């Protein structure tokens, strides 16, 4: 007890603190410990089993001189840029349309959000069938009379990543729409009334008033999209398995193949560490924007 008769700060909300112990233990020991372990062993020559035989930066040098890794980074950049832009634009437009309080809003919202409830493997398989030239979109269009129509992105090395992008957008845009809709519903109705009274066009209202007011929603959405981009794996495996050849390779698949199929743990750890750095590049600016700015006077 403190001198004034109140319980010590350490023992306040004791039940809640005890209940949080498993989560804290998991975060510290498994996540933080596993991350440190991965980084440490990325500087070794571990093969089938981990071993502490140091090789310095050799694994990273090999990593960035491997064409497969370079292709995976290029694919991730293409997928990431287009996924980020289209997810935000499509999600916001859909949210703005639903925000007009249209009829059957709940039905439309459910339809748009439903793909997010599916696993990425299921989504990848579905779109593999849809984009299959033998019985998918190409086959349907040709049966309608356009026999010269060609649309087989998953079988063309130059555009295969865009076929994967279509599946990713189909699954993830619904969640972005819901986040944006929640942000729009949080805007005070007086803001809309004032904009109408001042005669501001609707597109200017969204662009110069509403979107700046939704800054926290956009930042959170950007973090969610970016984290999903870095760890994209299931869609690629389900749709193309990295093919044709290695044309649709992504970093997560490279790491998995090296660790579990290539029996080269250290090389996989080096790739994992580079992915971790990418995540930190995303999270650190987000943390600064969310928490650093609030301390300013």
Describe the overall structure:
The chain has 297 residues and is mainly α. The chain has a single domain, classed as MetI-like (MetI-like fold, Orthogonal Bundle), CATH 1.10.3720.10. The chain is built from 14 helices and no strands. The longest helix has 32 residues. The radius of gyration is 24 Å and the shape is globular. The mean pLDDT is 88. Its main location: membrane. It is a multi-pass membrane protein.
Brief overview:
It contains 14 helices and no strands. It has 297 residues and is mainly α.
Number of helices: 14
Mind describing the biggest β-sheet? none
Number of distinct beta strands: 0
User: Over the alpha carbons, how many angstroms does the gyration radius reach?
Assistant: 24 Å
CATH topology: the name is MetI-like fold
Architecture per CATH nomenclature, i.e. the level-2 architecture: Orthogonal Bundle
Average of the residue pLDDT scores: 88
**CATH class identity:** Mainly Alpha
The figure for the number of domains is 1
The helix fraction, in percent, is 55-70%
- Strand percentage lies at under 5%
- The termini sit apart by 36 Å
User: By CATH's scheme, which homologous superfamily applies?
Assistant: MetI-like
Instruction: Catalogue the unreliable spans.
Output: none
Order of helices and strands: HHHHHHHHHHHHHH
The class by helix and strand makeup works out as: mainly alpha
Transmembrane segments: 21-43, 76-98, 110-130, 159-184, 205-230, 269-289
Main location: membrane
Pfam families: BPD_transp_1
Protein name: Sugar ABC transporter permease
